[in-house]
Specification:
mainly beta; five-stranded antiparallel β-sheet; 47% strand
């Protein structure tokens, strides 16, 4: 069963138990990904439009995780302060042109002792509507909220073996993804650290929760910010390079499905890389879905760190190598 079929089983956005408050937003369309040249093809991707989104709502910003639901009409976005934004995505043809009807709600209301709301780094939605959230900070937690009788249950902590001891403060679990059917450990949660540790031999630690440990090869100065499975089972990594001197870049790396769950260090080819000659910011969130034409669509969101010099951006690309896959 491919990931597209798994995601097709996810409860539609209108059926998810959102009870958030509407928030005002201003949206500006990004017509070209490159500042110069008017290109649409970037590596294995075709640019399908983008948005710059802002709001005077004090809880808006710091978006670090995104899930676009099947068909691409609805998005759920997670902030590092522990809020979920549900919104409709608007299109002109196959071009992303707008974000509308946004509603905001807490991701972890009434959290139990030992579960912090802050520094939510990524999240995934399971086939049954369950939400899984990665919390970084000093806690190194993964938290799940099952969907029970149409409502999200109270947060439940999932143990990540030795994560707190190995990763330390603010260097921890940056991404979670749910392993699709057809791969080893299907249905388990893959939790990935942001960067190597002194104990990891230069490799990035990851965990298949309640099943196995694994690692991903670090390449250059890039660090992992999110991960999602593609149709067919390959793992797509969103990576970021941030260094002094306005050295900001992002890239996507594709790990073959055959490496998932194995003992060897995982690695793969670069799908696309972009620096400040392109319309990027601090890109942290990644989502993968199929559009109505069956095309694999990649959506990225940026974390503005609540800084007036940064932007909240939503970018979409079509994965050309999967046009018929």
């Amino acid at each position: 069963m491919k990931l597209a079929l798994l995601l097709a089983a996810i409860v539609s956005a209108s059926a998810l138990p959102f009870s958030g408050n509407p928030v005002p937003v201003d949206v500006r369309t990004i017509e070209d990904f490159a500042y110069y040249g008017g290109k649409t093809r970037f590596g294995a991707l075709e640019f399908r439009g983008g948005l710059v989104v802002s709001s005077k709502e004090k809880r808006f910003g710091g978006w670090s995780g995104i899930q676009v639901l099947p068909g691409g009409r609805e998005a759920i976005i997670l902030s590092d302060l522990g809020y979920l934004l549900e919104a409709r995505l608007d299109y002109r043809g196959n071009r992303l042109t707008g974000l509308s009807i946004p509603h905001l709600m807490p991701a972890l209301p009434g959290s139990k002792k030992g579960i912090k709301r802050n520094d939510s780094e990524d999240f995934a939605i399971g086939a049954d509507g369950e939400i899984v959230i990665a919390l970084e900070e000093d806690t190194q937690q993964v938290v799940r909220r099952p969907l029970v009788k149409g409502k999200w249950a109270k947060p439940q902590r999932i143990a990540v073996p030795d994560a707190r001891r190995k990763l330390g403060i603010n260097k921890g679990i940056e991404s979670v993804a749910i392993i699709p059917a057809g791969l080893p450990h299907a249905g388990h949660i893959l939790a990935i650290a942001e960067r190597p540790t002194r104990r990891s031999g230069g490799e990035i630690p990851c965990w298949i929760l309640k099943a196995a440990t694994c690692s991903i090869r670090k390449r250059d100065r890039f660090e992992i910010t999110s991960a999602r499975f593609l149709p067919g089972g390959d793992l797509l990594l969103l990576e970021r390079r941030l260094a002094p001197g306005f050295d900001l870049a992002m890239r996507l790396r594709r790990i073959p499905a055959g490496q998932i769950g194995g003992k060897a260090v995982m690695d793969g080819d670069i799908v696309m890389e972009a620096d400040l000659s392109k319309q990027i910011d601090n890109m942290e969130g990644l989502s993968v879905h199929r559009d109505d034409a069956g095309q694999t669509i990649i959506t990225l969101v940026s974390d503005d760190n609540r800084n007036i010099f940064q932007r909240t951006m939503v970018l979409q690309f079509a994965l050309l190598s999967d046009r018929n896959g």
